[in-house]
Design goal:
- By secondary structure, this protein is α+β, with helices and mostly antiparallel strands.
- 41% of the residues lie in helices and 20% in strands.
- The protein has 14 helices and eleven strands.
- The strands form three sheets. A five-stranded antiparallel β-sheet has the order 6-5-11-10-7.
- The protein starts with a helix and ends with a strand.
Length: 333
């Protein structure tokens, strides 16, 4: 569900882009941006998602500058400052809480792009490189006439409304359905997902790719990741713990869930923090009783204290170990 403040900002942006009383402002913004993305894809005959990224960067007239260390950032700032690009002096401050910054060049050469999109890949930020690149492109794809007069955008960690909206736009194009969809289908396995990611978008993180792939999978599909966690009430209890109150032990619970529309229509109503059934193969894999595998199970094994058991339905659960937990795929027999 889109946050209320994001919806408000989307309506304002859609109006600035020329919309008149649209009921779906996000849809209008995506269609506006998609015209330019399609143009870029057609011009360079793109075949893969990384090619689409490069073509779109060319279409919106930007180039990427990526740094992985403090020294590389210092050198980058010095290089552009020597060219009279004074806006780069603020980058060290910007990147205290940002992933990316896009600036309009003041003294560009005739053959240079109008903008430079600087991406922070220090430490854990490196895992978001692909998404951050698309986030910066999203700002340029939705740039209004007023915004073109003076442009400097910072992709901050704090999710203010405009940044959250750009995350939605980036997610739409980062795994653009017209380019990814033809490669999805058939037997859903970790091996098939890994192959598709390697062939189509190795730059994207595993988590961002699997979320997009499952959401677009043509048949009922669910991805989940589970770790040892307390119930939310137990977590609150732990936070308020005294010597007189001790919380119960942690159990294997869902921390990530992606259920596509087809699976949801079949009754897969899983949600974060839901307990993994002890009889599921996922428990055995987590306990390292087996390395990986798949098993026939019943959807009704999944239940919660307030919603009860899910409908009875034959499913196939595949699992494998993951960092601090276990990953699973659910399909129907």
């Amino acid at each position: 569900m889109v946050r209320a403040d994001v919806t408000w900002y989307a309506r304002r942006l859609a109006a600035d882009l020329g919309a008149r009383a649209v009921e779906d402002p996000l849809g209008f913004i995506l269609k506006h941006a998609e015209k330019r993305v399609r143009t870029a894809a057609r011009k360079l005959n793109t075949k893969t998602l990384p090619e689409l990224l490069a073509a779109t960067a060319q279409e919106v007239s930007t180039r990427f500058e990526i740094f992985e260390t403090d020294d590389e950032l210092t050198q980058l700032v010095a290089t552009y400052m020597a060219r009279g690009e004074t806006g780069f002096a603020q980058l060290p401050k910007d990147f205290r809480d940002s992933f990316g910054v896009t600036l309009r060049l003041l003294n560009r050469k005739p053959w240079e792009p109008e903008h430079v999109s600087v991406i922070d890949c220090r430490g854990s930020k490196k895992h978001r490189l692909y998404y951050t690149e698309w986030h910066e492109l999203s700002h340029l794809l939705t740039l209004t006439q007023q915004g073109q007069l003076k442009f400097r955008r910072t992709h901050a960690q704090r999710q203010v409304a405009d940044e959250a909206l750009m995350e939605l736009v980036a997610g739409h194009f980062g795994y653009w359905s017209p380019m990814l969809q033809p490669h999805l289908g058939g037997a859903l396995t970790f091996e098939s997902l890994t192959r598709i990611r390697f062939e189509q978008c190795p730059e994207g993180s595993w988590q961002s790719f699997v979320h997009a792939a499952i959401d677009r999978w043509p048949s009922p599909a669910t991805y989940l990741k589970a770790e040892m966690r307390l119930k939310r009430s137990e977590e609150r209890q732990r936070d308020q713990m005294t010597i007189w109150v001790q919380p119960n032990g942690a159990k294997l619970r869902l921390v990530e869930v992606v259920v596509n529309e087809a699976a949801r229509s079949r009754g897969v109503e899983l949600f974060p923090n839901m307990r993994v059934p002890e009889e599921s193969i996922l428990h055995r894999i987590y306990a390292r009783q087996q390395d990986a595998g798949r098993a026939d199970e019943c959807l009704s094994m999944w239940e919660s204290s307030d919603r009860g058991a899910l409908r009875a339905c034959a499913i196939v659960v595949a699992g494998r170990p993951a960092y601090e937990g276990v990953e699973g795929l659910i399909t129907f027999k």
